[in-house]
Design brief:
Structural class: mainly alpha
Shape: elongated
Strand content: 5-15%
Number of helices: 12
Mean pLDDT: 76
Strand order of the largest sheet: 3-2-1-4
Distance between the termini: 73 Å
């Protein structure tokens, strides 16, 4: 039963865990109603043919009982095989069909759920306290179902009697065959109406089981938060991992700053390190960038390693905003960057720093 604080729908993870534990939507009434409906269908459509086949077979068995002087074990085995194959064969086939319908209904209700863990004995199922706690609700529900079934069965019998009233009165005036035929038709109508009623009750029961299943799996908001924390990781751990990743990325960037061709600054708020190798690169590439504190660290590292620093606020802001680390500069900034590289080329005496 759901607790007072469990007001949220079950998450997919909770539903998956419940299925792994062997908890499925299950309705024995629904499965039984479909099984009964299948049995009635088999009886109505194949029963007359089987009985017609059974009449000459019954005459054959009676005649055989008078003609056989002595019954040996071999003859008994042959007769039993003949009875199973020719006389009871349709019954076996019909039974297999009904079983197949019941299994299909069960698998459809549980959505093909199967758990071997339910086969193992569990001591908590033997606890009488939990059983006694659930007994009043189950007893009242079963009592209501029994009264409803009795009421519907009584109505069906009354309707059957009223519809077949003239036929029932004529049974006494007819022969055995006509009386048996009328009785079988009345019984067939009764079974058909009962099957329809049970099928409706089965659909109602499976809807109730589905609602109860999801109500029992409801979760509180705290449980959802804990599940998200377990699935995605603790926020503290994720923040620590992100911080370590940023620090590692900055260390790599600072190592690349030492090999930069030039540092373009704002001069204080932005700093962008570019690298260009005429032999191996088609266009200059941004190898590092930073703002405020990180920009100051880039300038300090460049000064310590002798990397030229050029002040060009518009170009520094444009490179910082539009180019990611490791990407080549866009074509519309080629001219501005080329002017800076030419200036450094002249400043370095006809060569670029490596």
């Amino acid at each position: 039963m759901p607790q007072p604080g469990q007001t949220e729908k079950a998450t997919p993870q909770r539903l998956k865990k419940a299925r792994e534990e062997g908890r499925f939507v299950s309705s024995r009434d629904f499965v039984s109603s479909l099984e009964f409906l299948a049995a009635v269908y088999v009886i109505q459509h194949f029963g007359p043919g089987w009985f017609a086949h059974l009449r000459p077979r019954a005459s054959h068995w009676i005649d055989l009982a008078f003609r056989l002087p002595e019954l040996t074990p071999n003859q008994l085995a042959l007769l039993g095989r003949e009875a199973i194959l020719f006389d009871l064969g349709p019954v076996w086939m019909a039974g297999l069909g009904v079983v197949a319908v019941a299994l299909s209904a069960q698998m459809a209700t549980t959505q093909f759920g199967f758990a071997t863990g339910n086969l193992a004995p569990k001591l908590n199922r033997l606890n009488p306290a939990s059983r006694l706690k659930e007994y009043p609700a189950q007893a009242m529900r079963q009592l209501g179902q029994a009264l409803l079934v009795l009421l519907l069965a009584g109505l069906a019998l009354y309707a059957l009697a009223m519809n077949h009233y003239p036929v029932i009165l004529s049974w006494g005036r007819g022969g055995v065959a006509s009386g048996f035929l009328g009785l079988s038709r009345a019984a067939g109508d009764l079974l058909q109406q009962g099957a329809i009623v049970f099928a409706v009750l089965g659909v109602v029961d499976v809807a109730r089981a589905y609602r109860k299943y999801h109500a029992d799996l409801r979760m509180s908001k705290q449980e959802i938060k804990e599940e998200m924390k377990d699935a995605e990781g603790s926020p503290e751990v994720k923040r620590k991992l992100r911080r370590l990743q940023r620090e590692r990325s900055r260390r790599r960037m600072m190592a690349d700053v030492e090999k930069a061709t030039a540092i373009i600054t704002n001069p204080t708020h932005y700093a962008v390190a570019i690298r260009f190798d005429l032999d191996s690169m088609a266009a200059p590439k941004v190898v590092g960038k930073g703002k405020n504190y990180l920009a100051r660290r880039i300038r300090e590292r460049a000064t310590a390693k002798g990397v030229p620093i050029v002040e060009n606020p518009p170009l520094a802001r444009a490179l910082y905003a539009s180019v990611a680390i490791g990407q080549e500069i866009p074509a519309h900034l080629y001219k501005a960057v080329a002017e800076i590289l030419a200036y450094i080329y002249r400043l370095m005496g006809g060569k670029l720093p490596r």
